[in-house]
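Key result, reporting period 2: structure in, sequence out.
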């Protein structure tokens, strides 16, 4: 099967690597062509536009940063919706507003494509290993068509409703984890007078009911950074995390719901980004808070 990946940032690039590894004929497009070079070197074919990618592939997987990028890639010049989509399958794995996902999905369907949304839980390593968590929205027939490919990318697939449902659930899943990283930073701040070694402190906090599964996995890295080590590799950046929190807050407002804790965490992520940590891993927000000078 020829599979196109539209958007080859951290997650899209990792998904493309997984598809190459399991034997698909992979094609790629990205606005910044430098991000497609490692994939081309690994055997993928680069296309000059989203439209060309979609027309040249049986399936197009879309993985874009935000709603603005989604609108541009679908509706812009040589965008996906300008392609001949009749009979094609589009799987959008972006984390965006549910209404944006519904809108582009309806447009793709009107153009003759089968359209499935599958925003995923997980970061670069699970993507490369085919261990993502797919939150799927779409018709039964379209999801059935997409499932064999999704099974090669995901350890678990949940079809939770029509297009838009997966996006809603993805925002709900990301929200408490991102709030947790900020809460951990506050927890570490009030532990500072103890002067415990970072490794010991993190080990204690990770072995409690207050810790998340992610803390148990990422704790050793947080301890190293807390102790002064370099930031290390980014699995999920602060800028991307900030975008997900902002998207959740915006969606909540659209359904007349309030997210006061998420709003506060969003402000903290925005501050970390302004302090130059946008490309650092989201867990860095915890360490950033312990080093922050109190506002006057």
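The corresponding designed sequence is given below.
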């Amino acid at each position: 099967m020829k599979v196109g990946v539209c958007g080859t940032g951290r997650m899209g690039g990792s998904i493309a690597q997984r598809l190459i590894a399991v034997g698909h004929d992979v094609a790629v497009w990205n606005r910044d062509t430098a991000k497609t070079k490692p994939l081309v070197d690994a055997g993928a074919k680069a296309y000059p536009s989203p439209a060309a990618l979609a027309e040249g592939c049986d399936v197009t997987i879309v993985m874009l940063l935000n709603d603005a990028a989604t609108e541009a890639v679908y509706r812009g010049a040589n965008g996906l919706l300008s392609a001949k989509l009749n009979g094609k399958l589009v799987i959008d794995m972006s984390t965006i507003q549910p209404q944006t996902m519904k809108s582009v999905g309806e447009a793709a369907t009107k153009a003759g494509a089968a359209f499935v949304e599958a925003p995923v839980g997980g970061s670069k390593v699970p993507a490369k290993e085919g261990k993502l968590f797919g939150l799927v929205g779409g018709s039964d027939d379209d999801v059935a068509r997409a499932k064999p490919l999704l099974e090669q990318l995901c350890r678990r697939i949940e079809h939770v409703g029509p297009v838009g449902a997966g996006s809603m659930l993805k925002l709900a899943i990301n929200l408490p984890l991102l709030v947790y990283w900020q809460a951990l930073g506050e927890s570490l701040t009030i532990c500072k007078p103890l002067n415990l070694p970072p490794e010991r402190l993190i080990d204690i906090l990770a072995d409690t009911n207050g810790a998340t599964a992610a803390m148990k996995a990422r704790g050793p890295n947080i301890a190293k950074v807390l102790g002064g080590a370099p930031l290390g590799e980014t699995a999920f950046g602060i800028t991307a995390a900030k975008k997900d929190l902002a998207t959740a807050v915006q969606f909540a407002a659209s359904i007349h719901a309030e997210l006061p804790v998420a709003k506060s965490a969003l402000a903290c992520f925005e501050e970390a980004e302004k302090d130059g940590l946008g490309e650092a891993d989201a867990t860095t927000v915890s360490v950033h808070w312990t080093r922050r000078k109190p506002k006057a």
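The first strand starts at residue 2 and ends at 6. The longest helix spans residues 165-191. This case is discussed further under Risks and Mitigation.
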